[in-house]
Design goal:
single chain; 467 residues; alpha/beta; 15 strands; 52% helix
């Protein structure tokens, strides 16, 4: 608990301590300033016979003790006589926290006797208390508990005679969402003292100038927030229009591509009957391009569905190794075209409850990725059981991925190399990550430029719904 009273940095005529100001909050930016304010608060109490209770972190307790000694206070003697009590903030906090919230009865039992003993030892004088427990709770991200603890301090003041100084780092309040919480903190105290930027001003004119600057900054920030809100709405609308377009484009492409695939199948049958190898070769190449277009259309539709939260899993008992083998068999022509030699290590009976078709999509994407970037080089595919689930890995010996790109490649429409050199929409790895994470698994990559890449998928045997 900090009071900005009577210090050279915070002059007496700026913040006069009144009897009604029994719960003060000091906002601060620099710990050195905080130490000055706290020590002045305690030292002023010692001069009128008021004892002190400090509940602070170890570095702050050491700083306070050093500064009190510099002012002439015999800290060891004061502690021995009970005029000064030093408590660890985290340890004291842990004595009354229950399920992440301060328990009133345990709080009163932990703090009340300390205040009462100091009060009696000083022949009934008011106790000056400083504490950092609320600041610790705030830094822990538990603002609700901090505000409840402030209220409990106010309730405790109805039973014990003390003046309380709280301190909050201004760094706790950096976002627009923090504004309401900041106001709640101020409302919980009888006196609010601004940071050193205001308190150290030499004159009333300088302080008013500082207030005016802060008001201007606040208005500018509000205007910027409003501008960003409008831009965000426009971006969301643009994204919706884009997703609508992708959905329409994907569906419109699917119909003619399905017809085209049927025509290729028919023509290939006719070419085989006529033993026209030249025509058959051309048709196979054309069909391969049509299949590629179909895959791109499917990726577009998947991207739209996943973005809209419509990725659903149809779980069934399946064998990962058998699933991988099926994908490899279907991809034999692509493997031959890429002139890659496959090295397989597939354990038997790697079984779990998974969406079979979606996992086949993941394997296909990883294999296609390896064939694309490691063409002409060996590819290793492994599937095995682990302690907590199944593991799949696909390793190529291609161009590799720089460390700075290894996270980015799992984002939508991202790639580690230019699309001019390697085709695709940059959706395959993103879709794979969405599918794997929907199963409760993880996907990662290990790679060095020029030394290929290894993509690893880890899956739990049974999907657990996090909802």
């Amino acid at each position: 608990m900090t009071s900005a009273l009577e210090s050279p940095a915070c002059r007496q005529d700026q913040h006069s301590w009144r009897a009604t100001d029994n719960h003060v909050v000091q906002f601060y930016e620099d710990s050195a300033f905080l130490s000055d304010v706290v020590v002045q608060f305690l030292d002023a109490g010692f001069h009128v016979g008021e004892p002190a209770v400090i509940i602070a972190t170890e570095p702050h307790r050491a700083s306070f003790a050093q500064r009190l000694k510099a002012r002439g206070t015999d800290v060891e003697r004061a502690c021995a006589e009970g005029r000064l009590v030093l408590l660890d903030a985290r340890q004291t906090l842990n004595r009354f926290m229950v399920k992440g919230m301060p328990d009133w009865h345990q709080f009163k039992s932990a703090i009340g006797p300390v205040l009462e003993q100091s009060h009696r030892g000083a022949q009934g004088a008011r106790v000056r208390a400083y504490g950092e427990m609320v600041d610790l709770l705030w830094k822990d991200g538990n603002a609700q508990a901090a505000l409840l603890l402030e209220a409990q301090w106010n309730d405790l003041a109805k039973e014990h005679l003390f003046s309380l100084l709280c301190a909050y780092s201004m760094g706790n309040f950096r976002t627009q969402e923090d504004a309401r919480a900041f106001q709640a903190v101020c409302a919980a105290h009888t006196h609010v003292v601004p940071t050193e930027q205001y308190s150290r001003a030499e004159s009333e004119s300088a302080r008013l100038r500082e207030v005016s600057i802060l008001q201007q900054r606040a208005q500018a920030l509000e205007a910027e927030i409003e501008h960003r809100r409008r831009v965000e709405l426009e971006l969301l609308e643009s994204m919706k229009l884009r997703d609508d377009f992708l959905s329409v484009a994907g569906h419109e492409l699917k119909t003619p591509l399905t017809v085209l695939q049927f025509q290729f199948h028919t023509l290939l049958g006719m070419a085989q009957e006529r033993r026209d190898e030249r025509m058959k070769e051309k048709l196979v190449r054309a069909r391969r391009q049509a299949e590629r277009l179909t895959q791109l259309a499917d990726e577009l539709l998947d991207a739209v569905h996943i973005s809209a939260g419509r990725l659903t899993l149809r779980l069934e008992a399946c064998d990962l190794s058998a699933l991988v083998s099926e994908v490899l068999e279907r991809s034999s022509s692509a493997v031959a075209q890429a002139q890659c030699q496959l090295h397989l290590s597939l354990e038997e009976h790697v079984r779990g409850m998974w969406d079979r078709l979606r996992l086949m999509q993941v394997v296909t994407n990883l294999l296609s990725n390896a064939l694309k970037y490691g063409a002409g080089s060996p590819i290793e595919v492994k599937a095995c059981a682990s302690t907590n689930g199944a593991r799949l890995s696909v390793r190529d010996s291609g161009i590799g991925i720089p460390p700075k790109d290894q996270t980015r490649i799992f984002e939508r429409f991202e790639r580690a190399v230019s699309s001019q050199n390697h085709g695709g929409l940059g959706l395959g790895l993103w879709i794979s990550r969405q599918i794997v994470e929907a199963h409760g698994g993880v996907i990662r990559v290990e790679s060095e430029p020029g030394n290929g890449a290894t993509f690893t998928v880890e899956l739990p045997y049974a999907h657990v719904n996090s909802d």
